[in-house]
C-alpha cells in the first residue's frame, strides 16, 4: 500500500518561492506525480519524476529522492493564480494521492 | 477535443435511490478511473479499467459498480445511495499503464445524498 504525507496548508507572498514537501512509504514505486487543483475544479498534471533529481518546467520544479521516499514541488515567482491545492501522488500502476497542500498566495 | 466529460455536474439524491454517473473520453485512452474526493482528503480510487470489458476494484469499491463496454465510456453506478456517498466524483483516463502518462480528469460530479 501507499502512505503519503504532505503539509495541509502553506501561505506565501506574491513573487516569493514556496516548497511543498511530500514523503511517502510504498510497497512498490513507479514514479511520482504532482497535480494542481484549483477550488471546485479538476486536478491538472504538473510534473512527473521517476529518477532521482530535479525536473524543471518554467516556474515549477519537482525533486525526487527514492532512497529517502521524498519529493518536493518548488513554485517560484509566485502569482495569485498559483493559489490552489497541490496533490502528490505515487504510482504503483495505480495512483495513490496525498491529501493535498493548500497554497494561498497573498499580495 | 472535449477530453473527459462527466455528467451530471450536480445531483441530489434521497437515501436508497440509485443513479449512474456518466463518463466518456474522446482521447482513445485505454485506462479509465473513478475517484471520490471528500473535503480535506485526497482522491480515493473506487474502480478502474485497463480496457473495454475489464474492470477492477480500487481502494473504496463498496456501494459502487462499473462497466466498460466501450473504450470511450466508463459509467459508475450507485445502487442504494447512502449519506456516506456524499462526495465529489472524478473520472479520469490515461493512455497506457500510467508509468509516465498523466491522468486526465473530468470536471467532476458533485453528489449529495440526503
What can you tell me about this protein's structure?
The complex is a heterodimer of chains A (107) and B (114). Chain A is an all-beta fold and 107 residues long. Chain A is built from no helices and 11 strands. Chain A has strands at residues 2-5, 9-13, 18-26, 32-37, 44-49, 53-57, 60-65, 70-75, 84-91, 95-97, 101-106. In chain A, the strands form 2 sheets. In chain A, strands 2, 4, 5, 9, 10 and 11 form a 6-stranded mixed β-sheet that branches. With 114 residues, chain B is mainly β. In chain B, the strands form 2 sheets. In chain B, strands 2, 4, 5, 6, 9, 10 and 11 form a 7-stranded mixed β-sheet that branches. The mean pLDDT of chain B is 93. Chain A binds chain B through residues 4, 8, 30-31, 33, 41-45, 48, 50, 87, 89, 91, 93-100, and chain B through 33, 35, 40-45, 48, 58-59, 90, 97-100, 102-108.
Keywords:
heterodimer, A: 107 residues, mainly beta, 6-stranded mixed β-sheet, 0% helix, 60% strand, globular, B: 114 residues, 49% strand
For the biggest sheet of chain A, the summary is: 6 strands, mixed
Secondary-structure element pattern of chain A, one letter each: EEEEEEEEEEE
What can be said about the biggest beta sheet of chain B?
7 strands, mixed
Ranges of chain A where pLDDT stays below 50 over 5 or more residues in a row are none
Could you tell me how far the N terminus lies from the C terminus of chain A, measured between alpha carbons in angstroms? 40 Å
Low-confidence region ranges of chain B: none
Biggest interface, residues from each chain: A-B, 23 and 23 residues
What is the helix tally of chain B? Answer: 0
